Amino acid sequence: MTPPKTDRTRTTTRFFWGTLVALFAVVSIAAVAAFLHKPAPTHLDIPPTRLETALTESVEKARAEVVSDLDTYLDPVYAPAYAAIPRYADFHYSILGEYVELGEAALGQSSEALEQRLLAGFDARLTNAAAGIDATFVQAYRDTVETRIRQEAAPETFDLPLGEMTASAISDAVQRAKVTAPVAAMVALGGKSALKATAKLFAKKLATKVASKAAAKGIAKGGGIAAGAGGGALLCSWLGPGAAICGAAGALVVWLATDAAIIGLDEYFNRDEFEAELRLMLDKDRAAKRLVLENALTRKASAMEDFRLNQLAPAK
User: Contact, 74 vs 157, CB < 8 A?
Assistant: First the structure.
């Protein structure tokens, strides 16, 4: 027969079970609190699929941003050439310029001379512009990716530094952007030759024009030179044998005066058209170069849109 429990035994039992229940309650509350109150994040990371989307979709935005700014790069490439047109016209419509150009035409050097006077430094300026476009694209891509990732982040992580995986993926993608289908390489392959070909055609046309003018002036000068030589000889007849020298001088004066008069008339009627033709040549080439640069950026963007995270370097 079980002895009846004393009050002391009952109190001890109740205390034991009460303590267990209290401990269980405390542990449960602590577990729930730990679950509900996770430690604050220290870095910004987003899921791989969203990171991959940010990397690929940022390409087009960067491309569009750089395309809209292409004129900023083309202006310094073409500005010196446009500025050289009036100086070149001054030279062309001068007695010295006419004889120099006539000699260049005879030697087949008209194209090289035109390039030197109008397009000096053009290739170097275009190369520098293409390199600048590449650098701007890379920076625009980096900025766009980082902005996009922070837009994907939770508000409490917006200002945190990037996590190791995210930072490594961005860094590798940016490095790939630097070497994938460079714009400078596209320009080097064929972008420089078009203007030289156009300039060569213009120089050939100019050489023909200079030769035609020289022939026409030769006919016009014929009678004038004879008259000048005769007048000079008559004026200096008192010198005896020296009259021949005066005759030659008179012929030279008439020759140069005829040159100056014909060149002046040519400049008066044709200079504006001459300069306009040169500007049109540059305008057309600039439009063509802009298209080359746009196509190069589109090709670069197309190659970059195939990026995948498993192709990027793993975080170290």
Answer: no
Per the domain annotation, does 160 fall within a domain?
yes
Residue 58 and residue 140: Cα distance in Å, rounded?
9
In a domain? residue 3: no
* pTM recorded for the entire structure: 0.73
**Span 113-145, pLDDT tens digits:** 888 898 899 989 999 999 999 999 999 999 999
Q: Domain span at residue 75?
A: 48-212+272-308
* Domain membership flag for residue 285: yes
Rounded Cα gap, residues 110 and 94, in angstroms: 16
DSSP-assigned letters across all residues of the chain: -PPPPPHHHHHHHHHHHHHHHHHHHHHHHHHHHHHHSPPPPSSB---HHHHHHHHHHHHHHHHHHHHTTHHHHHHHHHHHHHHHHHHHHHHHTSHHHHHHHHHHHHHT-HHHHHHHHH-TTHHHHHHHHHHHHHHHHHHHHHHHHHHHHHHHS-GGGTTSPBPHHHHHHHHHHHHHHHHSS-HHHHIIIIITHHHHHHHHHHHHHHHHHHHHHHHHHHHHHHHHHHHHHHHHHHHTGGGGGGHHHHHHHHHHHHHHHHHHHHHHHHHHHHHHHHHHHHHHHHHHHHHHHHHHHHHHHHHHHHHHTT--GGGSPPP-
* Distance from the Cα of residue 51 to its chain's centroid: 30
Chain segment 16-57, per-residue pLDDT in tens: 666 766 677 666 666 655 555 555 556 667 777 888 888 888
Q: What is the pLDDT of residues 79-90, one digit of tens each?
A: 999 999 999 999
